[in-house]
Amino acid sequence: MTALRPEGTYGSDPHGEQPYDPYADPGAFEAAVGRLADPLNDPLPGPDTALPGPYPQPYPSYEEPYRHDAYPADLHALGGPHSQAHHSQAHHPPAAPVPGADVHGDGWYGTAAPPAGAAPAPPVVSEPSTVPEPPVVAEPASEPAPVLDDETMLLRQAEEPSPKRTEPARPPDGGRAARRRAQRARRESPAVIASRVLGELFITFGVVMLLFVSYQLWWTNVIANQQAGNEAKKLEQQWEEKGGDRDPGVFSPGQGFAIMHIPKLDVKVPIAEGVDENGVLDRGMVGHYAEEPLKTAMPWDEKGNFAVAGHRNTHGEPFRYINKLDPGDPIVVETKDTYYVYEMTSRLDSTLPSNVGVIDPVPKDSGFTEPGRYVTLTTCTPEFTSKYRLIVWGKMVEERPRSEGMPDALVR
Q1: Is the model's pTM score more than 0.70?
Q2: Is residue 197, in this structure, part of any structural domain at all?
C-alpha cells in the first residue's frame, strides 16, 4: 500500500542548510500523478523511488533513505561525480509532461492556464492495484567454480588412471623378410615334432606297462585264488558224498583229484590232472605230470615219483616260497580215502627246463639211489622269470586213511 504523501523530510538540500521537501518544487506532484497510468508504478517518492527533474536521488543505497551526511559537504558543493545533482541528472532525466496533467501545479489540467481566482483542484488519490505482484523467487546461490592452478591440474592428471588398451599393441612391421623369419621361428622343426611324438608314445607305453604289471602281480592272484578255493571246496563236497568207489587213476585233463598241504608255508591248493597253463596252472592249481613222455606215478602207486608243477609268481603263486623248505618239513597229499605224508629231503636251486631227469622214477640229482615212493615239486626261478627251474624232493613217510583222522602234520 503506497502512502498518500510522505511526512517530514527525507534529507537536506545539497548544501545541508534547509530541510528537503520532495513536493516543494513546482511540477513535482503533477509529474508524479501523471505516472499513475501504470498501475504497477509507484509515483510517490520514497527511499527507493527515483524523482523526476533535478531533485536529489538516494545514491548511497536503495535499501535505506538518503542521508544528508552520507557524503562530505565539499563533494556536494563541488558537483563532482558523487554529488547529488550529478547523480540525479545522470541516472534520472526529467520526466516528460503527461497530456492532461496539471503542468502548472494549480489544479488545472491541460495546456491552458487556469482562470483567475479558480480554486485548485483536489489531489488525485490513486486506488490500490488489484493485480498481484509476482512473488520474488530467490535464485539459489551457485558456488563459484574452483580456480585450478597448474599444480592442481598436475595432481589430478597423476590421480586419473590412464585408459586401458583393448587391443594388444602390434609389433612394428619389419618387412616381408622379418615376417618370414618370425614365421619360420614359430614353425616347429621335424626333430621337435618327432621328439614330442616319441615322448607321448613312451608315456602311453609306460601307462600300459603299469597296468599290465598290476594285472599280473595282483589281479591274477585274486582270480586264481578264488578259482582254486572253489575247486578245493568242490572236491571236499564230493568226498563227503557217499557212493560207489571210482578208479582213482582215471581223471580227465584239468580235473581236480587231490589237495596238497604245505603246513610250513600255509599252502592248501588243489591238484588237477595235467600241467596245462590255461586249464590248470593259471587257475591257481598244481598240475600233475600225467602225459607222455613226462607221465609220472600217482600217490597211491606202490613205487614211483609223484611229480607236480605250480607257479612261483602270479596266478595264485602256490610254490613261491618252496625254496624255504628244509629237510623234514612235511608235505601232505589228501585224496578221497587217504592222507599221504612226505618229508622234504633235498632241493635243487636251479636247473635248465630241459632237465627232465628230475622227475624220473628215481629222480636225477635228488640223492635217491633206488626206486621208492617220492614226490617232486617244480617251479620257475628266479622270481618273476621262467629262465630256470627250482626242484624240491620228498619221500613218503606215512599213508593214513581218512577214517583214522588227519595226520599229525596237519593237526599241529
Answers
A1: no
A2: no
